Amino acid sequence: MGADLEQRGHYRDASIAYSNARQSAHVLGRLQDALDAAQKAVQMAERTEDPVQLGRALNYLGHTLVSLNEFQKAIPVFERAAALDVAFQHPAGMAGSYRGLIKIYRKLGDLDRAAENAVKAVAVMEATIQKTSVRPGKRRQRDSGVSRDSGKLRSRENSYAQVLNEAGTLQLALGQWEPARASFQKALEVGSRIDVPRRMAQAHIGLGKLAAKQREWQTAATHLEKAIQLDAGPDPTATAQSWLGRAYRGMGKLPQAEQVLRDAVAGFEDLRALLQSEELRESFFEDKVTPYEFLVLTLIDQGKVAEAFDFSERARARAFLDLLANRVMLSTGRAQTLIAEEQALRARISALRVEREDEDSASARRELGLARDAYQVFLARVRAQDREQASLMTVEPLTLAQVQALLPEGAVLLEYFVTGQGETLLWSVERQGIAVARLPLGRGGVAKRVEAF
Fold this sequence. Notes:
The chain has 21 helices and 3 strands. It is mainly alpha-helical. A hairpin with a 5-residue loop joins β1 (413-418) and β2. The protein is globular.
């Protein structure tokens, strides 16, 4: 629709259509498509004289960049959107810009600036909802008028729930437990009232994180299980699974923790695979290593040392591969064709995984299995045609058995896996065996010592 309207010169409507396409792609976890549509929406809006639509399109672009961890690129986008929305008094747009800046500055560690934007976002939304609410004696008589007011109120309450969830996450980072709980509870109430599963799931994830930080594992598990049941999309589901794995581990439910962490890792890898740009793949994966770490630790807790080694290698290879691929130039013609085919196959797998979660039937499992088989056949064909391209498409680290086979007799491989969980793993690998030592020094401690040295 956007392309058709663009061709006919209806740029404002084209911008709206592209914005709507961005929304759908984002919920489906197709972040590359979301970015492309958001950029088109801004281009179309800039060809109009509608500052409100331009502000809205900029906000969508900013939030897409935030989802990809492209924070420095998103800051000027949000600042431009906020300036437009303030000038033309568009409160929902203002709140959207402030909400994006809350998340960015929180992620960058600038909590004071994050808090400033949180105060502004909450104040703007509470004031505008109060104005929009239908008051006794002021109700519009015509059904169409009431419907318009109801739709506007619902949209603004949706924005309010988003702002509350982001404010709660910031309060968590500041260690303000009770204010965070109040923000998430309010977001849950608003999300339930307007029946928006994504807002409800985000609130449950926030409450689950809060409980986990307070080591209230059962409460955390209850909220995170509810978030997963809401099926609000691939990204929040994988995030909820990652935190649920930690909660199960805290409860001593190691097999359950292992399974849900495996699901989280698979979910994040599916999302990453749908990105075409290696630069975006690298930035997206920056904060997704935590479920790998908890999975490795959970496997070790169960005595599954060999599997833990394999997953630690997978995490290291994934991060290194994205770093490397961003600096490798491939021949554009054939490589781009292969990348497009990979995207289609990975999108199919991602869609079928969601269907299986909705209805875990034999046919759904069979279809997912066939799709994964088709992807493996595709990778085998790419390896035969272009091994360099194949190496950039999939993580294939050496397994423990393969590593042992390469070691000379009498040699010992010492390899470290530094985690953000307060410990570093030291693998000691020989041809006939493997041992692991757990050193009480995590990523922060290692970084401080290296910097001091």
